[in-house]
Every structure is written in C-alpha cells, then in structure tokens.
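Sanity check

After download, print the first record. It should look like this:
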Amino acid sequence: MTDLVQRRLNSIEDDLLNGSPLPDCLRKCIALGADLRSAPLREWAQRELTGYPAEVEPPAYRKVPGGLAADLRAGGRIAKVTSINNVPASVREQLSAMGGRCDVRAGVAEVEAMAAHADAHWAGSVHLPVPCAEEVKSHLNKATSAGAYIDDVYWNVSASVFRGLIDQVRTTAVSILTEIRVESAEVGMSGTEAASNAIHLHVEGGSRHSINVTTNKSVHGHAGTASAGDNEAVRWTKRQTYWTVLGVVVAIAALYMAYLQLRG
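Expected structure tokens:
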C-alpha cells in the first residue's frame, strides 16, 4: 500500500475506535475500497449503508433471534400475543428452517432509527416482517372469538439486539481494517488481495487463506516455497538439534568428571 492509502486506513480505524458515526466510517471504507481496487470491500460497506437486497445472503451477524408475535384487536383495543404455537404445518416448517432467527437487511442508519423508535413507541421491541404472515393471520383468525381478529403478524425482536448489531458492524469494520494492515505489512500481500482475504474471513465466515512464502534456498538451482507450517517444522528441528548437542556435551563432561574421580 502507498503511504496515502495507509494514512487513510489508519484514519478510518481511529474514527471507528473513537466512536465516530458508523455511516460516515462506512462511506470512508467505500473510498478505501476504491484505493485498494477491492470490489468486495466496497460492496460490503455499500450494503451495510444501504441494506442487503433480497437476492444477497446477509452475514451471520445480521441473523438475529426473535419470536413470532401478533396484534389481536378486540373492542377497539390491541393486545399483543407473543406466544404463537398454533400455526399450519407448512409455516412450522418454515419457522423451523429459520432456526428462530430472522434476517435484518436494512442499512445501519435505519437499524439505529428502528431501535430508537422501538424504545419510544413499541416498548423496546422491533417488529420485522414474516414471510408467512398472511397465512398465519388467516389461520389464527379462524380460531378467534366473535368481534376479535388478528390485525398483524410479525417477528418480535428486542431493540437491544439491534443496538448489538450496530456494535457488531463497527467491530467487523475494525477487524477488516486490522487484517488488511497486518497482511500487507507483515505478510507482504497486495492491498487488493489483503482486502479480499479480510472480507472472506470476517464477513463471509471463511477460514484464513494459506500463505506461501518464497525462500532463498533452492534444490538443484530452483527456488522453493515454504508454508508457515514448514517454517515451524524447521524451527522445531533446530531446537531439537540444539538440545541434542547440549545433552551430548553434558554427558561427555559428566563422564570426564567421573574418570577424574576414579584416577584420584
């Protein structure tokens, strides 16, 4: 990376750690992605700002726990029903596949606004849409008493979960930038490759890519490569040799001392 790009990365990292507004930091990440020629970094920051479209699988940290809830209207009053077990078999299969979690696809500014609105108007819970809402509503209304009906069905998610999500996005951004800095400076990756690796690791949940390091040693005139595991094996062999030699020296010295004692 150039000094200019390095300074931009350090500045964004400082902003994230000092609590600067998250949307501003993500916009700077888009610019950094352009500097590094990294489409994955730009796309991640853009989606965190504007939201994840339906055709894109959101990261694992955007799958939050929630419960199926409904609003029951009766006599002009609304009562929240938070435990819904009587649902059609097809709906139960969908809910089971979701594992009690729902996707939060909105951009970070909207997520923050939803949490604030929930605290002020919905007793600290956020209402998210359910794919099978109409089917559940129709099924439940068949069992309600006269004069009462189910008005809405939704995922009931605590606002604190949304605030935790915002914190996770900030932490993920710091992890990405740190990964880029370390792999560029210590491993020698290009900024583009380091950014792609960081997104793969911290957003997509992949494993760290193996890194081959070219060595100056050669076999029959050809340069070779060694992985981190190979280097560790070399260090271990050197340690074994050192202690073996030291053990031999100590043993010889002990035999010599015993020989002197026998002669005396």
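If your output differs, re-run the checksum step. Summary of this record's structure: Residues 224-263 form one domain.
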